Automatic annotation (TrEMBL):
Belongs to the DprA/Smf family. It holds the Pfam family HHH_5. NCBIfam families: dprA (TIGR00732). InterPro entries: DprA, DprA_WH, DrpA_SLOG, Hlx-hairpin-Hlx_DNA-bd_motif, RuvA_2-like, WH-like_DNA-bd_sf. Signal peptide: none annotated. Residues 11-30, 43-62 form the Helix-hairpin-helix DNA-binding motif class domain. This is DNA processing protein. It comes from Sunxiuqinia elliptica. GO terms for molecular function: DNA binding. Gene3D superfamilies: 3.40.50.450, Winged helix-like DNA-binding domain superfamily/Winged helix DNA-binding domain. One of its GO terms (biological process) is DNA-mediated transformation.
Length: 368
């Protein structure tokens, strides 16, 4: 099957009601390839763990291949870039999320797997305090370099973060709650077009998707999943930004919140996140870089000094070899080494004591 037919079947699978990312992966694991899923009988589908009679019936009766073929034409005509979760160029941070979408679509000039990626989100009713914070924080990011800012292109804090990024030359990515055939709200279309040169637009929805509140809540998981850390600038006690914070926390990603006066309506959510230890307080970029261990170690003594001629066990050497090129999450190490989490954790602890490995936020480790 060529890659275009493969894409058509992948889109079709994502369009079947009741078949989310987890079930899609389960089906592909059992059947080995995607086409047999659409040609199998109901009884065969029901043998797949997680596929009940109702879902199996929906797959058998599904008539989504024609719509999927139309979407392939749209992708080709508009030069939309895409990746399935099995592709190497699928965003690595998002791939580690349990509910990562089967397919991701984007356009622009985006580098998903490099640098420091930070989501900045908040209320649609941004105040001058919130907008000024976005501008000053992104300015600091521009001065230090290596940052990408992600947000949702919505009114308020989202668009303030995107505009600040464009103003200061920081790449910025907008995650949409609809397909790449439109921009919502329309008022932000000119900003979105400028972002294509200095970042881009991303979605897991196909074209002609209706504007729906639930879709924007769903897109929040993409914002959180693409980022190393999520910053809530302003939020009331309820809102989409707090949903994004919860999702980021569930992904074991760091969450930060900007403090405000207790009487300010759109600081209450942030203050609550800090007070309940669901987010770390952030006032400047230094707070973020310290918490994320991103600060530049210039003329600072190393807290853990490597021992000279240290002796490693065979298993310790395997872990060191696996981490030679880049920092890794503990689950990535477990997968590469074929070892259980408990075993790898104890080896990493031993390597930390020997000054060979240091830990980063989110259960990530690097060689010192």
């Amino acid at each position: 099957m060529n890659h275009i037919d493969q894409l058509k079947y992948q889109i079709a699978l994502s369009l079947i009601p009741g078949v989310g990312p987890s079930l899609a992966r389960q089906l592909l694991t059992v059947f080995g390839s995607i086409e047999p899923i659409f040609t199998s009988r109901k009884q065969a589908l029901m043998k797949v763990p997680g596929i009940g009679e109702i879902t199996a019936q929906k797959i058998v009766e599904s008539d989504v291949l024609e719509r999927a073929a139309e979407e392939v034409e749209f992708i080709q005509k508009n030069r939309i870039q895409y990746a399935s979760i099995w592709d190497e160029h699928y965003p690595a941070r998002l791939k580690r999320c349990v509910d990562a979408p089967l397919l991701l679509f984007w356009k622009g000039n985006i580098s998903f797997n490099t640098g420091k990626v930070v989501a900045i989100v908040g209320t649609r009713n941004a105040t001058n305090y919130g907008r000024d914070f976005c501008d000053s924080l992104v300015l600091e990011m521009a001065q230090r370099g290596g940052y990408t800012v992600i947000s949702g292109l919505a009114y308020g804090i989202d668009i303030a973060a995107h505009k600040a990024s464009l103003k200061h030359g920081v790449p910025t990515i907008g995650v949409l709650g609809h397909g790449l055939d439109q921009v919502y709200p329309r008022l932000h279309k000119s900003v979105a077009e400028r972002m294509l040169e200095h970042g881009g637009l991303v979605s897991d929805f196909i074209s002609e998707t209706k504007i729906d509140r639930q879709n924007f809540l769903q897109r929040n998981r993409i914002i959180a999943g693409l980022a190393d850390a999520t910053i809530i600038v302003e939020s009331a006690e309820k809102g989409g930004a707090l949903v994004t914070a919860d999702i980021a926390d569930s992904y074991n990603r760091d969450v930060f919140a900007v403090p405000g006066r207790h009487a300010d309506l759109f600081s209450r959510g942030c203050n609550w996140l800090i007070k309940s230890n669901k987010a770390s307080m952030i006032e400047t970029l230094d707070d973020l870089e310290y918490a994320m261990a991103w600060q530049q170690e210039v003329d600072k003594p190393t807290r853990i000094q490597k021992q000279l001629f240290v002796e490693l066990t065979d298993e310790e050497q395997q872990v060191v070899d696996a981490m030679e090129r880049q920092p890794l999450y503990i689950d990535q190490l477990c997968q590469r080494l074929g070892m259980p989490v408990g075993k790898v954790s104890s080896i990493l602890l031993a390597l930390e004591f020997k000054g060979i490995v240091s830990s980063l936020p989110g259960k990530m480790y690097k060689l010192t």
